[in-house]
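User: I'm putting together a teaching handout on how sequence relates to shape, and I'd like one worked example. Could you take SDR family oxidoreductase from Candidatus Dormiibacter inghamiae, show the sequence you're using, and then write out its predicted structure as tokens right after it?

Assistant: Happy to. First the sequence, then the structure tokens directly below it.
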Amino acid sequence: MNRSFAGRRALITGAGRGIGRGAAIALASAGAEVTLVSRTRSELEEVAETIRLNGGCASVAPADVSDPAELEAVFEGLGAQPADILVTAAGINRPGPLVEVPVENMAAIVEVNVLGTLWACRAFAKRVIPGGQPAAVVTLSSQMGTVGYPGRAPYCASKHAVNGLTKALALEWAPQRIRVNAVAPTFVKTALTEPMFRDEQFLQTVLSRIPAGRLGEVDDVVGAICFLLSDEASLITGHILAVDGGWTAQ
């Protein structure tokens, strides 16, 4: 089926790297006008240039998702035509034994992964609901939002929270025709995760937990995001779509 987002306006947080970057490029290539959000302007400009070179339409809006005022300003800057697609891909992790993780690292995980998602969803809905048009949100969760993993307690807690937020907002906004779903990937190969997979023992431990026998690719997750945002998923809301090669089926 030919999936088109022509005439749609999408805002993607965490758009400078990894899954957020991939989602932005995919949505733009399918016709959406995209607004790219992250803290690092240079990364956003690179993504925007890639999109424009391929005939797409992109603008950049540097902001810290953990600051609700900055996010409000980004959404206000969209003007009279609000975004009708939101992808919240901004996220961080600071692994380590809980008793050794600095308090500021734990706070940062909650501020970005949980509150950053909440602030973005809130700012999005405030501008979509008055217009009455249908809209779709995909939050970025993780397999760690369903299971636990040693050395990642704050991260696991944050992604469990994202799952709860996703389900609650799906119910709250269903009457306004706003669908809210999440994708929950396994370990995905990105520039940020590459260093951890240089540890062969860790890599083999991870692979042993994935029945499909491989790490995730950005495109695996992007495909799921685009499906959930599309009209093909018009009756799907409140769902956490695992993209984990079977990890959480065990």
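A couple of points you could highlight for students: The chain is about 40% helix and 15% strand. The first helix runs from residue 18 to 29.
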